[in-house]
Every structure is written in structure tokens, then in C-alpha cells.
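Case study.
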Amino acid sequence: MRHVEHAMGTVFSFDIRDFDAQHTGDRNLGTTAGDPATRSACDGTENATVEAAVAEAVAWLHWVDATFSTYRPDSPVSRLGRGEIGLADCPPEVAEILGRCAEAAEATRGYFTAYPGGRLDPAGMVKGWAIDRASDILIRAGAVNHCVNGGGDVQLSGTAGPGRPWRVGVAHPSRPGALAAVVESPYRHAGGRFAVATSGTAERGPHILDPHTGRPASALASITLTGPSLTMTDAYATAAFAMGDAAMDWVTGPAGVEAFAVTASGGTWRTPGFPLAEPAELAAGTPRPRA
Amino acid sequence: MLSFKPHAITTAADRPAAVAQNGGGSGGTALSGDRSAPASGGDDEGEHDDDDDDEGALPPATRPSTAPSRQGGTGGTGGSGTSGGRTVTGDVADTRWGPVQVALVLSGRKITAVQVLQSPHGNRRDLVINERALPILEQEALSAQSAQIDTVSGATYTSDGYVQSLQSALDRAGL
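After joint prediction, the assembly is written out as follows.
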């Protein structure tokens, strides 16, 4: 089942794989085909459950948008930022996000901030977290094999097919439609969660500020991080972009996070554990070993 | 591969040949047979194409030699032949930049192309949407059909309108 939804100014897509043998007769049903957790979504009677879960996830995304948007003057976060209400007046999720922002700010040595330009705007944390939670909603409904992609940041659960790990193309930052690399999830069986987040200037121009200089970060064209869950992976991707090439040594500090970058000059680098399925064949630059 | 030329409707139809799958399973419905030849070849192939082919992540062996037939960009359900080429047209979505309408080209239950039937013209914002958001939406729709990749990660893109039309086409196609 697939669903696309416009929210938070971008596109969210849901791709739920049920491994329904009726529709995937060309697939070689592997060991997970008999797994109860996998098979549950194959039952026709479960389709309504999956659809309800997607509807719940979509409603969740719109709720997050209404609560956290700084483009909506009446959102709780906008009102909090103007000092009209206190944190106690906001939904508890606002305090949760601000807590996570504080954690990220510490972990990234200040490169992540919930106050870009001095004004409260936790957007750098909110989208990844919203996708992460949307994925949780699907898992709770029994749809354990799925992909939720929000504007290019991806939370994956389980596998793409029986015994087949999810594979994610990394969009080339300067060549629309081309891929710079392909990432493969380490999970070949149900249960694992894997996230891919990319930050860059390709889509919205130089909008990520280096909080330490106040100027737009410009060393990298894009950086892609992989980790178990999208909440911190996405926030770290924004911070790592601001760090530039210094991110190479930083990203392996947070547990389970790996990085692949395309530099402003067109070269690439990656951390040793980055789960590259197919290396980039870029005209300029080749992956160089980490110092 | 997968590059998309804004404002060139034919390109949207021709491009997805790059990911139309003929591998990854014994029963995959390869593009062949009753499909007509590509409506056009040369003029719409932009300057990116050669480069992209060289650097693309999909090996050349996965590419069929012919592009999906183009249903003419006029919408409607132009079922042709016995096993493929069905076109399912999405609703027209009104955006503040103008009407947007897309169509899916199906082979059985597989999406082989996303066509742009209508798109707004005339301002920079529109160009950004066409150049960035639509190709990724197209990849999204097509990547599920590919044995190579399932989705695409990239810097956050924005879109308005296309998604509405695309979803209505997905719903109509029963996907």
C-alpha cells in the first residue's frame, strides 16, 4: 500500500510492504514469509487495519504541523516563542522536543540549535521525530515492513521484501534526478529500524547557518547520515552539514551514526561504516579513506 | 537516468525507462511486446542524460531498450494492447501557481511512468518545483517498481499540487 501526503510544506510518502503473495508472485518468498508478524499484514482482513494506521499517522503529521509550525502564528510553538504562553500551556510533546533539542545541542557542540537566528524554531528536530513516530504508529498496527519518507528523510522498518533489505538512493545534490550513492539497510529480516537523513543546499538554497559564525555553511553540498532512528539522525544531519568536513570525525561519536558527504567542489567522502550498497561514480572526486 | 526536464511533458514519459524493472524476479513484466516505440527520442533528451547514464546507480543491464509508449499527454485511460500501457489520469489540482495534473502509466500493477499533463509556467518558484520536487516524486513512484532502490533521500524539497494529483491517480489505479 502506498500513500502520499502534503504536510509541513513538503511531501510525505508511506510505502507499506505486505509481501502479499497474490501480488508478488514473482518474488521468491523467503524465510520471513512464514513469520507471523510479517504475515499478519497479508491477511485481507488486516488491510483495513493498515489503512487505519496510515490514516492515524497522517493525522499525526498534521497535528505536529499545527503544533510546531513557526509559519502558523497561532501554533503553540509560535505563541511560546513570542512569550504569550508558557511551556506548561503547550502540549507535552513541545517539552519533549525542546528536551531533545537540548540533547542534540550538547551532542553536536552547539552546531544544532533550536534557536536559529535567535528565535525559537525547533523545526530541525520536529520533522525527523514526526516521521519516526509515524513509523511507530505503523509498527504498532502490525505493518512492520515499511518506508516513511518525509521530504527526503527516511525511516525504514523491516525489509523491502522477504530477505531483501531496503535500498535508498541518495539524491545527487547538483544533478537533479541523478543519484550520488545507494545505501542498503543492514536488516534482512523483520524487526530492524534504519534511518537515512540528508541535509543540503540543493533544494532550498544556503539556509543552514553555522551557529558559531552566523554565516551559511558552505563546505558541503550535502551530507547523508544513517542511524537506527530518524529523530536524532535527522537532527545530526543538519548539524553535520553546518560542521562541514569536520563532521567526518564527529559523526562516528554518536552511536550508530555514519556519514556520506558530497563536498561543494564535487568530491565525496564517507565514514568507514557507511552502509554503501553501490559507490558513487562521480566525475570529480573519489571516496578517500578517513584520516 | 531519472533526470527530468521541466516543461517537457514527453520527457516525463520517456525517462522512467531507466527504472522499469525487468529483473529481480522471474515474473517481472518487462517492457516489451505490444508497447509502441517511443514517441520521440532525440530532441527531448537533455544535456544531463549522457552524464547521468554514466554515473547512475542502476546498471545498464537493467534498462530496457525501449521507453514506455507515451500516451500523448492528453490524459484519459488509454489502454493499449493486452498487457500494459494503461494510463490513469489524476485529478487536476489547483495551486496558486496554476493547475497541475499528472498521470500514471501502468503495466499491470506496476508503474512504468509518471507523466505531467499540466504544470504551471512562468515563475522561478515553479521552476524549482518542477526541477526538484517532481523528479523526486517520480522517483518515489517509480522506485517501488525497481529492483535496485526503494526510495530516495535528499535535501528537503517542497511540493504543492503534484502530490494531490498523484495520489488521486494512485487511488484510481488501485495501488
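Observations recorded in class. Chain B touches chain A through 48 residues (CB under 8 Å). The first strand of chain B starts at residue 86 and ends at 89. We will return to this complex in the next lecture.
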